[in-house]
Amino acid sequence: MADSEWDKLTTDYESGLWINTFLQLPFLESKLKRFTEERGGAPWAVLDVGCGMGKHTLMVLKAGASYVLGFDVSKNMVEGAKMATDKFLHSQALAGSPKADFAVASVANCSSIPGARQGTFDLAICVYVMCNLQSGEQVKQAIAEIYKMLKPGGKLLIYEAHVLEYMKWNAKPEDPLTNNIAWGAPKEDGTKWSYFEDEGKPRQVTLRMNSEQEITFTNRVYTLSSWFAWILEAGFQITEFREPRADLESIPADAPEFAKQAAKSLLEMCWECTKPLKSP
Ligand SMILES: C[S@@+](CC[C@H](N)C(=O)[O-])C[C@H]1O[C@@H](n2cnc3c(N)ncnc32)[C@H](O)[C@@H]1O
Predict the structure, then answer these.
(1) Is the Heme keyword given for this protein (predicted)?
(2) 161 ligand 1 Cβ < 6 A
(3) Minimal CA–CA distance to 164: which of 216, 224, 227, 208?
(4) Residue range of the domain that includes 49
(5) Over the stretch 137-168, which tens digit does the pLDDT of each residue have?
């Protein structure tokens, strides 16, 4: 597989993104808690799509998953995820402790990862991955591939930057106190990015990580109607759609001002998709 633009971003990505701690993690943790309770102690298997450095692989293992298959198109990210997970599993070396496997693979054909069995996963998580694919067609194909991997009744959680907020990221704000956690390259013709016209167009996006380093990569975003259509066309039911916001009271007083500003925005969107018990 060709090198990924994410291969060189592992060190800074590992430092985290300030806002995730207050916005994304509480939401995902509460979902996983409910998921664990619903299983009532039965084993459950998770597919961590685009696992990056393994942040969510560890989260699902800590939540009680019995097995995780993490995969990513970046070889270096997979190595990082594997190292972090091995360290965690080693520290937990008890009889019946969970297991994890990793693979370098694209979500566009994840149903053919060697050794991975279709129809065996209870949950798939896909956090900030689809925006990295190269077209809407690929996103559609990716959702269909994940569908194949889930058991009937299995769930897919898709988490993405909110398309409306994303359209506002026009350039790095000069005032350091404004929301400059994330910004996008301006359009070459000087016009603003547009919700309908610029759907699926490549854009350089920069994130300021907790290491204070900036990482830049290519993203594409899609209208809400495309997202809903692709998820439903794959055969999923949409059992929840949320636009989680940060609980401003949970933001520590000593947080950087730009992070407090960012927390006020509609930053993210999340779908819980359920594979019906009976195929249509
Ligand atoms: C923003 S990071 C998110 C990583 C992880 N899900 C997390 O939340 O920490 C995006 C990840 O998607 C991966 N990625 C990009 N294209 C992919 C593809 N076609 N298939 C699988 N992973 C992909 C990148 O290598 C990168 O690790």
Answers:
(1) no
(2) no
(3) 224
(4) 7-37+44-161+222-250+269-274
(5) 999 999 999 999 999 999 999 999 889 887 87
